[in-house]
Amino acid sequence: MKIAIIGASGKAGRVILEELAERGHALTAIVRDAARTQHDTVLERNAFALTTEELTDFDVVINAFGASPGNEHQHVDLGRHLIDQLRGTPTRLIIVGGAGSLYVDEEQTLRLADTPDFPSAYLPTAKNQAKNLEDLRQTVDLHWTFISPAAFFDPEGPRTGKYQLAKDVLTVNAAGDSYISYADYAVALADEVEHHRHDKERISVVSV
C-alpha cells in the first residue's frame, strides 16, 4: 500500500513510520526539512502547499502534524486544506488526534479538555484538534478516520502489540488508567490502515 505521512519526523510520526515500514508498505515521509528524517523516500514540502495531484498518488495519507506553541490553529488550517484537496477522491485520510476531545461521561456532555485538571498548556491543541474533528464530521465526500490516544500518551512506553479500541468516550484499561504508548498507538493506526474498519469515524485507543 502506498502511504504518505505528514509530519513523519515528529515524535508520533517517526514511530508510525517505523511500524508501517516493518509491515512492508511503500512509505513517503512528507516533511518540511528532509534533513530531519533518515527515511529513504522523502517529499520535502510545506504541508499547506500539498496539492490534490500529490496527495492522491497515495492510497492513504496520515496527518501526524504537530503545531508549535502559539500556532495551534494550524491543526484546523491544515485539516481544512487536506479536506479540500482529498474530498471526492478515493485516498483515505487518517488523523493522529488528541485525547482532549474525548468525553468523560457516557452521556457525552463533558469533554476531557473542559475538566478542571486538564493541563492549560495543552488546551489550545485540544480545542483546535476538536475543531478539526468537527470539520471532518461535516464533510460527506471524504474517507477519513480520526484516531485519539488515551489521556497518557507515552512516548517511552513499550510496544506490546496489544490495545483496545473505543469511540468518543475516554476509556481506561484493566488497571483503571487511560494509557497508551506511542508504539502501541502506531500498531492500532497501522491495523486501521490495513483493514479500514472505521471509515468516517473517530476511534480512540487505550492499552489492555
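(the above was protein one; protein two follows)
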Amino acid sequence: LILIPLAIFFVIKGNFLFNFFILICFFITSYEWHKMSRRKSYYLLGLIFLFFSFYSAYEIRTHMSDGYEYFIIILLICISTDIGGYFFGKIFKGPKLTKISPKKTFSGAIGGYLLSIIFFNLVLNSNYFLNEPIKITFDIFLFILLISTVSQLGDIIISYFKRLSKIKD
C-alpha cells in the first residue's frame, strides 16, 4: 500500500524519476531472482524475462504519447485483479485453479476479472486519472481481460518458480 502511491508518483512525474525508479526496481527484482534461482536451469531464462518486462514498462511510459496514462491503467488493472482474486477467493473459496499455486481458486480468478472491469469503469471514468473518461467498448473490455489474464498468469508462473526453489513466501 505504501509503494502504490509512490509508484504512481514516479510514473506521472516523468522520465528521470521514473527511469531511476524502474532501474532500482529492476535491480532489486534481479537480486531476488538471483537469490531464489541461482544454480538452477531456468536462471538465465528468468533474467531475460525480467529484463524484457522492465524494458516493456520503460517503453510504455517513455515512448508512447500519454504513456503515463497507459502505464497507470495497466498498473491499476493488475492491482485490482490481485485484490479481486484475493477477496473473492477468500470469500467464495471453491475448486482450486492449479496445483502450482494451491491457494488460487476459480472464484478468485473470476473475482480478479470482475473487480478489474468494475474498477476500470468506476475509477478511470471519473476524470481523476485521465483527461477524458474512457467508455468501455468491446476493444477496451478485451484489453482489460488480456491485462488481467497476463497478471494472473504471471502470478502463477512466479508461484511455480518459487515452488521449484522451495520458497513459500
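Reviewer note on protein two: Helices lie at 3-13, 15-37, 43-63, 67-92, 106-123, 138-164.
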